[in-house]
Amino acid sequence: MSDDTFNYYRAEIKKVLDAGPQDGEDWYRLVVKGKRETKHLNVTPTQVHIISALMSENWSALAALLPEAVFEARRDDVNATAEASIIDAVREVIAGWEGLDVPIVGVYFYADEWDNGWFIHTSGEAIDANGEVHSGEVDVDAHADEFGEAFGTVGSSAGVLIDLRNGELSFDDYGRANLCDPFVAGLKKQPGASDS
User: Fold this and answer.
1) Domain membership flag for residue 195
2) 56: Cβ–Cβ under 8 A, 6 or more apart, which residues?
3) In-domain check, residue 131
4) Would you tell me the crossing angle of helices 45-57 and 3-19 to the nearest 10 degrees?
5) In this structure, are 99 and 148 located in the same domain?
6) Residues 50-109 pLDDT 10s
7) What CATH number is given to the structural domain containing 90?
8) Residue 158 resides in a domain
9) Is 65 exposed, middle or buried (0-12, 13-18, 19+ CB in 10 A)?
10) Which of 66, 84, 103 is the last residue of a domain?
């Protein structure tokens, strides 16, 4: 991208941001999602096009033009999309399992060390409705990019828990202690859970 184009884009986006909220958070959604969602916005089609183009082609350039709060909102949007993809992949793997005596209600992914840092491992532990943990059985390695987008580098104790009962994904810097163990303990306390 040339300096002239970048400066032009910066000037146009600054106009959007300087206008402030036109109707609640309308301008904010525009910048985060890169599209015009309401007629109440005081934004030109050219500005919408610029934002959309930068979103899809040059995210780093857009990040340089936006305030940190908008950047974080866009990051949250990317994370939500990646997390939804991970949950769908986990459900697909579990759906392919046949003959389960006890349904799988959760999956826990722990941190693993690579040459360039700690990342959430793409092979998770299945947790059944009785609170029994089955190590390394949920392999969603094909979605490693989504794991990277959603969580990036993490600490050595980090983890991700997916509750398949409600589709909720949770991340914690101390995943085993703060997510997995309480989840398993709660299942074991339920009426009808086995004592094994």
Assistant:
1) no
2) 34
3) yes
4) 120
5) yes
6) 666 555 555 555 555 555 655 566 566 667 788 899 999 999 999 888 778 899 999 999
7) 3.30.500
8) yes
9) buried
10) 66
**Do residue 125 and residue 60 come from a single domain?**
no
CB distance 174 to 158 below 8 Å: yes
Contact in structure between 130 and 107 (CB atoms under 8 Å): no
Q: Look at residues 6, 5, 65, 4 and name the one whose alpha carbon lies nearest to residue 31.
A: 65
Q: How many CA atoms lie within 13 A of 77 on its CB side?
A: 14
CA angle, 145 then 150 then 154, to 5°: 100
Q: What is the residue-averaged pLDDT of the chain?
A: 77
> Residue 145's pLDDT is what?
85
Element (H, E) at 192: none
- Decide: residue 142, CB within 10 A, 0-12 exposed, 13-18 middle, 19+ buried: exposed
- The domain in which residue 111 lies consists of 76-189
Task: Decide: 122 and 149 in contact? Cβ < 8 Å.
Answer: no
